[in-house]
Each structure stands twice: as C-alpha cells, then as structure tokens.
C-alpha cells in the first residue's frame, strides 16, 4: 500500500466502517506497541488500555492506524468517560 500523506489523513476522521475494514492491520499495529485488545465506538474512535503514563501509545497507534486507513483514526484511552460505550474491535 502506498504511503498516505499527513494532509490527507488529517482531512477526514475515519468512520466505524473504515476502521472495521482495516481492523486486522490496526490490531497488528497495536500488538507491536504492546497494547491488549482494542475496542471501537460507534463513531469510529478506537479505545485502548495502556498502563504507561501519558498518551504516547494512543498517539502512536493513531498515527500508525491513520496511515493504514488513509483517514485520521482517533484513539483514546479507556480511563475517560467517552470510552464506556466502546465494544471489542
């Protein structure tokens, strides 16, 4: 797959369907970062659990997933209220 420019990925937030279409590749990227099972909200936001402080893992997975999907993939950690509605990816 050809690399996607940062400008393109920033122009559009990935939908749930777009994230699901690339779920296998996103799971592989998460595994490389040592992240356990991913969850997905109805709006396409990916929810992760990370024991490390800060948002480095979320930011890195967002960048990796955005390159794969070709649209911005929003990633949040599971310690925020907006993560409660997510289901397994």
Question: How are the SSEs placed, and which strands pair?
Answer:
Layout: H1 6-11, H2 16-21, H3 23-32, E1 39-40, E2 46-48, H4 56-69, E3 75-77, E4 87-88
Describe what you observe in this structure.
- The protein is an alpha+beta fold.
- Helices cover 40% and strands 11% of the residues.
- It has 4 helices and 4 strands; from the N terminus they run αααββαββ.
- It has a 4-stranded mixed β-sheet, with helices on one face.
- Helix 4 links the parallel strand 2 and strand 3.
- The radius of gyration is 12 Å and the shape is globular.
- The mean pLDDT is 88.
Output mean pLDDT. 88
Are there runs of 5+ residues with pLDDT below 50, and where?
none
Q: Structural class of the helices, strands and pairings?
A: alpha+beta
User: Which outline best applies?
Assistant: globular
Number of domains: 1
State the strand order across the main sheet. 3-2-1-4
Q: How is the biggest beta sheet arranged?
A: 4 strands, mixed
Radius of gyration, in Å, reads 12 Å
The separation of the N and C termini measures 22 Å
Strand composition percent: 5-15%
State the total count of DSSP E strands: 4
Series of H and E elements: HHHEEHEE
What count of helical segments does DSSP give?
A: 4
Helix content: 40-55%
Primary descriptors:
single chain; about 90 residues; alpha+beta; 4-stranded mixed sheet; 4 helices; globular
Short synopsis of the structure:
The protein is α+β, with helices and mostly antiparallel strands and 89 residues long. The protein contains 4 helices and 4 strands; from the N terminus they run H-H-H-E-E-H-E-E. A 4-stranded mixed sheet has the order 3-2-1-4, covered by helices on one side.
